[in-house]
Amino acid sequence: MPKIQVLPEQLCLMIAAGEIVERPASVVKELVENAIDAGGTRILIEVEEAGRRLIRVSDNGEGIGPEDAETAFLRHATSKLRAESDLLSIRTMGFRGEALPSIGAVARVRLVTGLSGSPVGTEVRMNGGRLVTGREAPSPGGTLVEVEELFYNTPARKKFLRSNSTELVQIVRAVELAALSHPWIQFRLSHNGRLFFDRPAVRDELERVLQVYGHGDPSDLIEVGGAVDWIRLKGLISRPGERAARRNPMEFFLNRRPIRNPTLAHAVLEAYGTLLGKGRQPRVFLFIEIDPSRVDVNVHPAKREIRFRDSQSVHQFVRHTLRERLQKEGFVVPGSFEESVPGPRSLSGFPIGSYREGPARDAQPRKGGDGSADQTREALEHYRPIESGLRADAPDDRIPSGSFDWPRTIETLGQVDDTYIVAVVDSELHLIDQHAAHERLLYERLRTQHREARLAVQPLLLPEVVDLAVGEAVGLREIGPLLARIGIETEPFGERSVRILALPGLLGAMDGARLLHELLEGYREEARIGEEAILSGMMASMACQAAIKAHQALGAEQMKRLLEDLYREAVPPTCPHGRPIRFRFTRPELERLFLRR
Ligand code: ADP
Ligand code: MG
Questions:
Q1: Atom nearest to 59 CA in ligand 1
Q2: Distance (Å, rounded) from C-alpha 419 to C-alpha 550?
Q3: Which terminus of the chain has fewer CB atoms gathered within 10 Å of its CB, N or C?
């Protein structure tokens, strides 16, 4: 009996589905893209339980005729591609003909559709890969696709889903990405029957960006644009300066398709050069139109990655366009060698310094994350030396195991490297990490006040408005009440912004925006642990941010007060992250070291 067999069709479908339908957001993305390709002007997305129970996408596009409705569910059945040569001129979001059959393989799908102008439509169902014959149904005036019980027949995949909030973040992001590059379409998303957002049609992409992200100061963003014969770019980029946050989104759209791409990410970072602080990332929305024959979109099942035929020219064009714009705004890019670079008219063939294309990417959909941090990391990996890891401070036996005792005398002698306090405490020599010590102190105080429900709150004289990334906005809906319990009072301020009204009093003046970003980011990573653990983690973050920093010169009084507090309040001997606070040398130890004993 032969060992090699062709797999049954149903199994093929499941395997293909594995690549395309990773999570509810993938379904949303595929259905929304189909709706876009159908030429509608309104797309409604309804999800329940973050898409686990139900995903419903409806549009007012061209619809599918009765003779095609079943075919749409066959593998590699598409109306968007006829011949291989069409691959070089793809303008639609879809073309692989895989989405509907793949979704139908791992969920219960119902499609109702009708050609525009006809009152009669067709209904087709597919359950776990089995197609149910279509029948007549009233036309919804476009197409409606309902996906229920995703992964009901693939429990392994179901287990990999993250918390509802994480899955919802991905869904919101999928819709938002589609909305950004299709400004003439209205997008409406609701979750569990509640409207999440409604974005009416606007004039162009830039207006859409402001519609989605625009509750901050629009003057923070600079419009850019440029074109040569085969590539055109427009977009918004952030003004270099204070607001360049660590995890700003860098969104790239190529022929309206949202993509991740290290070439583009790197070109942007190079354009800003040292105008960005270390590890910072500008906020960037770039809409690029390129001759479809100059790019290969068929390298990734979800089409999130593409390959430029000539990535060096693209890199150079983007970097040049952005840098020129920044210079026009009066930002001199330090170390700029742009003066010697010819204008975009003579782009081809110009060498571009340190840039090289990364190794060919495999066509694996990447797990988790929104990709924008990913691509930056990737860009940096390819183009900068990888920093070596820090040497870990191994605690040793000189770290006391219990908490600190209350000493009789404390004499501070000074600092080493503006980081470690040197002190004589009851005739022992102590070395104290000022940041770790202060951090632990603040943390313990926060916890005590929280435990005893007497957390002192300091209202801000000027409430601080903070712009949030989509994940953060979703996170805040969930943890807003938790934040209030540890003294961070906020109120919504538009769809994507929030106002900080008060902070815990004992932390002193601190950067509320930074704190909030960090807490929301941390929360996302820890979303599944218990509430108390989340609160503790948040208090640790707050303490860390408010604490005296390393490399900060301290006066004698400050050092003395810190040490007195440290010893009086009997805090545990490590910082909340487990690093030691203190090393001490007792008198016998000193004697041994100097061979007196
Ligand atoms: P692809 O989008 O790659 O062509 P799909 O499996 O997503 O493949 O869809 C198969 C076909 O079904 C499409 O080519 C299109 O003709 C039709 N179709 C799917 N969704 C819609 C829709 N919302 N409106 C009109 N036609 C649709
Ligand atoms: Mg499609």
A1: 23
A2: 5
A3: N
Q: Best substitution site from 26, 29, 34, 185 to test ligand 1's pocket, by max atoms within 8 Å of Cβ? A: 34
Closest by CA to 188, choosing from 177, 178, 201, 199, is: 199
Burial of residue 283, with CB atoms counted within 10 A of its CB: 0-12 exposed, 13-18 middle, 19 or more buried = buried
User: Is 466 in contact with 513 (CB distance < 8 Å)?
Assistant: yes
Q: What is the pLDDT of residues 39-74, one digit of tens each?
A: 999 999 999 999 999 999 999 999 999 999 999 998
Residues with Cβ within 8 Å of 133's Cβ and at least 6 positions away in sequence, in order, are 70, 124
Interval 250-304: pLDDT, tens: 899 999 999 999 899 989 988 987 777 666 778 899 999 999 889 988 888 778 8
- Collapsing DSSP to helix, strand or coil, 425 comes out as strand
CA angle 63, 68, 74 (to 5 degrees): 115
For residue 109, give both structure tokens.
């799908």
100, 123, 124, best to mutate for ligand 1 pocket (most atoms within 8 Å of CB): 100
Q: Is 146 in the pocket of ligand 1 (CB under 6 A)?
A: no
Given the CA of residue 100, which atom of ligand 1 is nearest to it?
A: 6
What DSSP state is assigned to residue 409?
A: -
Is the Cβ atom of 78 under 6 angstroms away from ligand 1?
A: yes
Taking a C-beta distance cutoff of 8 angstroms, is the pair 19, 103 a contact? no
Above 70 in pLDDT, residue 237? Answer: yes
Q: What number does the ligand 1 atom closest to the CA of 40 have?
A: 24
> Separation of 99 CA from ligand 2 center, angstroms?
5
Cα separation, 572 vs 588, in Å, equals: 24
In short, whether 122's Cβ falls inside 6 Å of ligand 1 is no
Q: Is 35 in the pocket of ligand 1 (CB under 6 A)?
A: yes
Cβ(203)–Cβ(227) below 8 Å: no
DSSP H helical ranges for 366-423: 372-383
390-420 burial, b at 16+ Cβ within 10 Å, e below that, comes to: eeeeeeeeeeeeeebeebeebebeebeeebb
Phi-psi domain of 254 (left: phi exceeds 0; alpha: psi -120 through 50; beta: other)? beta
Give SS3 for 476. Answer: helix
Which of ligand 1's atoms lies nearest the C-alpha of 93?
2
Full-model pTM:
0.64
Which of 249, 270, 244, 271 lies closest to 260 in space, CA to CA?
249
Residue 258: strand pairing partners: 253
Tokens of 392: 């870990």
Atom of ligand 1 minimally distant from the CA of 101:
6
C-alpha span between 560 and 412 (Å, rounded): 6
Q: Compute φ and ψ for 56, nearest 5 degrees.
A: -130, 125
CA–centroid distance, residue 182 to ligand 1 (Å): 18
- Six-digit token pair at 390? 């820090």
Chain-centroid distance, C-alpha 167: 13
